[in-house]
Amino acid sequence: MTAIPLVDLQAAHAEVAEEVREGFDRVLASGAYIKGPDVAAFEAEYAAFSGVRHAVGTANGTDALELALRALELPPGAGVVLPANTFVATAEAVVRAGLRPVLVDADPEYLLIDPARVAEALPGAAALLPVHLNGQLAPMRPLLDLAEGRPVVEDGAQSQGARQDGRLSGSWGRISATSFYPGKNLGAYGDAGAVVTDDEELATAVRLTGDHGSGRKYVHERFGFNSRMDTLQAVVLRAKLRRLPAWNEARRAAAARYDRLLAGLDGLSTPRTLPGNEHVWHLYAVQVERGRDEVLAELQAAGIGAGVHYPVPVHLQPAFRGLGYAEGSFPVTERAAGRILTLPLYPQITEDQQSRVAEALAKALTKI
Ligand SMILES: *Cc1c(COP(=O)(O)O)cnc(C)c1O
């Protein structure tokens, strides 16, 4: 039987192949590979998609987070509260912006940043950086209330098109970042990212800082670096953005199908959606009560590309030892890291493929 990948990027490519080829031909004929009309068009389209006035393309999502944080001009070394349960890039961006990561634990039900823990950590911090993990928004209303005017920056790398109470990912914070890493819901053919905001000054700051501090050739107004979007990536992203609402809808249907197929399996719990959230299912992550690693190995042996997001939380990574957190600092996140199992999910996954995943998972669980 053919393997079932965690994500099937070829299937997505097949849908946009013609449009991408025509666009690439156009760019290659023009000889302009950085920024250009396709990047400007994508920025306008992505801003509209996100329900904000401005989008600025960047070289990747980590840079987008760094640029968003830098644009706020917080005092050097100021604390930024972020969840321990996230991809390491969220914390990297804080450090690279000259700020101090203040990690907090997740809530046990949804594994999103826990407002109760945020309330404890915020008094000594200058900003809040929630992560919309796996495709659903962190609880934004409580978080904005707690922030009491401190800037809120959304990490929307996993949540393009997701909503909470009808309001889009990227439109809640003062400024937000996203990633178009190939495996994300909206993925480029290489690295790319974007910052989105309603604030024109912040958008300009991001644009200048990501282009050597320059708005006009040979005039460098502020310290910057190089983080621009490639024109070829904008071509891909424009073609895929048109399909994204339908693709997110297909992900929701696939997640609902997994919910049904996996209901009642012993030793397994399916992911929960925070009330008010319209999920975009970047990842469908179940929790395995016992023997997660054995279950993962069984699935992989059966040709099923299951994964773990993320097996080692940020605070236990060697690179972040300097932050001073020890094992036991964030019990919910640490417990989840030992139980999480990500199942294959992408817009084009078939019912048959999902049934095979569910059968293999049920079989693996009986062996534990
Ligand atoms: C992917 C991701 C990033 C970083 O994006 P890159 O484009 O890989 O730099 C940041 N935060 C989260 C939560 C992510 O999933």
UniProtKB/TrEMBL annotation:
The modification N6-(pyridoxal phosphate)lysine is found at K184. The active site is at K184. The keyword Lipid biosynthesis does not apply. CDD domains: AHBA_syn (cd00616). It holds the Pfam family DegT_DnrJ_EryC1. One of its GO terms (molecular function) is transaminase activity. InterPro entries: DegT/StrS_aminotransferase, HEAT_type_2, PyrdxlP-dep_Trfase, PyrdxlP-dep_Trfase_major, PyrdxlP-dep_Trfase_small. The keyword tRNA-binding does not apply. GO terms for biological process: polysaccharide biosynthetic process. PROSITE patterns: HEAT_REPEAT. Gene3D superfamilies: Aspartate Aminotransferase, domain 1 (3.90.1150.10), Type I PLP-dependent aspartate aminotransferase-like (Major domain) (3.40.640.10). Keywords: Pyridoxal phosphate. SUPFAM superfamilies: PLP-dependent transferases. Belongs to the DegT/DnrJ/EryC1 family. PANTHER family: 3-OXO-GLUCOSE-6-PHOSPHATE:GLUTAMATE AMINOTRANSFERASE, TRANSAMINASE. This is dTDP-4-amino-4,6-dideoxygalactose transaminase. The lineage of its organism: Bacteria, Bacillati, Actinomycetota, Actinomycetes, Kitasatosporales.
